Every structure is written in C-alpha cells, then in structure tokens.
Amino acid sequence: MTERLTQIRNHCGSSTEWVVDIKKGLSYIQPDGSTGSVYGFSSKKEAEAAEALYLAKQAGPILGVETSAEGKTCGDCDIQPRCGTVDHTDSHPGCTSFKSKDKIRKFDTGATRDTAEGKLDYRKALSPIVLQRYVQYLGAHRKQPDGSVRDFDNWKKGIPTEAYFEGLGRHDMAVWLLHDGFLAEDNHGPVNLEDTLCAIIFNASGWLHEILKKKNTNPDSTKPVAGGY
Questions:
Q1: Is the Cβ–Cβ distance between 57 and 50 less than 8 Å?
Q2: Which of 9, 111, 156, 186 is least enclosed by beta carbons within 10 angstroms?
Q3: CA neighbours within 13 Å on the CB side: how many for 6?
C-alpha cells in the first residue's frame, strides 16, 4: 500500500484558516483521492481533529476492522456480530453505532456500578405532573354512592376487560366533543378535558393490567432478583 503522510499548516500565515495536507507520492490529495489539500478549518484544533479522523479511517482497511471517531475499533465494541454501519465523511468520519465494552461506572468515592446503557429510565419516560394529576383524579373518585371510600388499589381486585372497553368508548367520545369545542357530560354531569383524559388512562391501564397480570404471574415474585440493582 502506498505510504500516506499528513501535515497541518495555517494557510498563508492566517490564524483563522488551517489546512490538512495528505501526501501521496509527490502530490497532495483530498480524502476522496482527488488532487489538492484540504482547506477550510477555522482553527488548528479543528484541523488536528480532521487529520486524526482521516488517519483512523485509513487504519480500518489496513487492520481489517472498522474504526470509530474515538479511535476505537470493532474489537472494542460490544455490538456483535460486526455491524458494518460506519459513516465516514470528510468532516465527521467515525462509527455511528460504537458501543463500548466498558460496563463499569467508577465514582469518585471508589464505588462502582454497571453502566445505565440499555436500562429503562422511568423518570425520563414518564411525566411527574401527569402522574400526579392522574392520582388526584383517582382520589376524587374514591367516594362511592353509598358514602364509603374505596382504596386507591381497589381496581386491582379485578374488573372485566369488557367494562374497561366500554369506559374507553364513552370517554373517547367525550374527548372528541371537548376537543371540537362542544360540551360533554357523563352520568354525574358535565366533564372537563383533564378528568376525561385521566379516565382514559384509568381504563387503558386497567385493561393492560389485566392482560399483563395473566402473562406475568410469578409464584417466586417475592424472592430477590439475582444479578444486581
């Protein structure tokens, strides 16, 4: 393979335009093989980064591996089998799917823990103000016609899925009416959009609960889960 050398220089003494020279024989070439140096970098640091990434790109074919923008290779990557999804461009070469094998986080205290990579993040996935409003809705509907107050988890005793289906239909119609600027009401009187959306959440989550309860019943559910925290 023809030896290629690179160098960085400022263009005509300018401090705001830097050039990367890629040498091939007696000429300078572009990353795509055409003639000429690579211009247009506004700082030496930017030019150095481009040079390093170009050299990393060239290392891949030589070593028979893909090379990431961080200089890591497929041997350092946890994606198996080899993904082959590498995006090399003039300004931003590098693997777009690099996944480090390092599974340990080390804290300043000396404590260690595996990384958060691949784990579900409930705080990011859910909205606390929605959950709060939903529980407020449940709280407002705990009082029953006979005056007694049911527990928050009374619904977990089991409600037929057909009842949830019917409830969804009624509340979906109410949302439609309210969205289009009309009044909506149930057997207790007028309803507002917030309460109606909470009612949809209740029926949908209750229905899903019944489905998952059948799938996930685990006789050993009270035993500690092996494998960490």
A1: no
A2: 111
A3: 17
